[in-house]
Write a structure and sequence with these properties.
globular, alpha+beta, Gyrase A, domain 2, Alpha-Beta Plaits, Elongation Factor Tu (Ef-tu), domain 3
Length: 363
């Protein structure tokens, strides 16, 4: 099983480890509830080094990404990011990714694509397959580490380590700064629904940065956080998980991700998605809140008046709503906020209703 460069640091913090798509990652440290509330009220630190990182450079890099990524990047300035997808010719989702146009460096366009951990090899091969001679691809997952600092005090913690005024970085923007006398690329991005930053640093310097942030953040209530809290936070924020809520059998239009598909430009899968948009989708991803106690299982059935209309994908207990919440694919005409349904829980069904996403939105 793979390990990130922070593995020993996690063990020193007595993290409970678990498998995350072939990576040994911290499931939790002090506990999921404590880590959740740290992010919602103060600040939490995550190792996200298991995500894939692919650097694309050379004169052909913009053309390659414009033809494969679902977002229009023609106007993406240096030091900015866009959330989008890579799709196959049939419009099915190969990966949901963040694409960064890196800050000015060696006098050429440099891009960084972050992938879900199980998709790194697939996306690298996909890009390689479609790259011309003037696009250079390098997988930098091992050499470039990724750490996420999330929560309302995240900017205060980082500004205590730098005079770069990180608080002024705008959403989906990135800047190279010095933290603890070390060059770090800081982007205002995240997966929790809170103010947050993702930090990209050379792997041989990652452990010192991790420990330095925990030390500096102690006075602000920082906690190291595991993948269990991250999964709860992302579900409340309405973010989808690849391999759970989306995969190669689903399209962006079924998954409610049409907003991050730019159909005015050409890309692989566009033709299929244009047709699908015109025809309409049979199933749609919908969010639901439980009206009774109980937590369904992923893969459980969703019913309306004794008719099976769909399947649960993600589910958890929301501290924010104080009820069970989840996502599932249902027959499109049923996916209306306020529609009451029944969700399979073990040997019975409990009441739920469809609600608007996200479940949680910061004030």
């Amino acid at each position: 099983m793979k390990q990130t460069v922070l593995h020993q640091a996690h063990l020193q913090l007595k993290a409970k480890m678990a498998d995350a798509q072939g990576w040994q990652m911290p499931l939790q440290y002090t506990g999921v509830s404590e880590e959740y509330y740290a992010v919602r009220t103060a600040v939490g630190l995550f190792d996200v080094g298991h995500l894939g990182r692919i650097e694309i450079t050379g004169p052909g890099a913009p053309e390659l990404l414009q033809s494969t990524f679902t977002r229009d990047i023609a106007d993406l300035p240096e030091g900015a990011a866009r959330y989008g997808m890579f799709c196959d010719e049939a419009g099915h989702i190969l990966d949901t990714s963040l694409l960064f146009h890196l800050p000015p460096g060696q006098g050429e366009d440099r891009y960084l694509v972050t992938t879900e951990s199980q998709n790194t090899d697939k996306i690298f091969s996909w890009l390689k397959q479609h790259a011309g001679k003037e696009a250079v691809l390098n997988e930098v997952t091992d050499s470039l580490s990724q750490i996420a600092l999330q929560g309302p005090r995240a900017d205060v913690v980082l500004d205590s380590l730098s005079n770069a005024q990180i608080k002024k970085i705008k959403p989906k923007k990135m800047r190279e700064v010095s933290l603890l006398d070390t060059p770090v690329m800081v982007s205002r991005t995240g997966y929790t629904g809170e103010l947050g930053y993702e930090l990209f640093i050379q792997s041989d310097q990652a452990e010192a940065l991790w420990k330095g942030i925990l030390k500096a953040g102690a006075e602000f209530g920082i906690l190291p956080c595991g993948i269990a809290a991250r999964d709860l936070l992302r579900l409340e924020a309405g973010y989808l998980m690849y391999g759970v809520d989306v995969d190669e059998t689903r399209t962006p239009l079924e998954a409610g991700l049409g907003a991050i598909v730019d159909l005015k430009k050409d890309f692989i899968g566009k033709e299929a998605l244009v047709k699908l948009k015109a025809d309409g989708v049979e199933q749609t991803l919908a969010g639901f809140a439980l009206l009774e106690k109980g937590i369904p299982r992923s893969g459980g059935s969703i019913f309306s008046e004794n008719r099976e209309i769909g399947t649960v994908t993600s589910v958890n207990h929301s501290p924010h709503l104080r009820s069970g919440i989840g996502l599932g694919y249902v027959i499109s005409r049923y996916a209306q906020p306020g529609q009451e349904v029944e969700i399979e829980v073990r040997d019975r069904e409990i009441a739920a209703k469809f609600v608007d996403l996200p479940f949680y939105k910061k004030k």
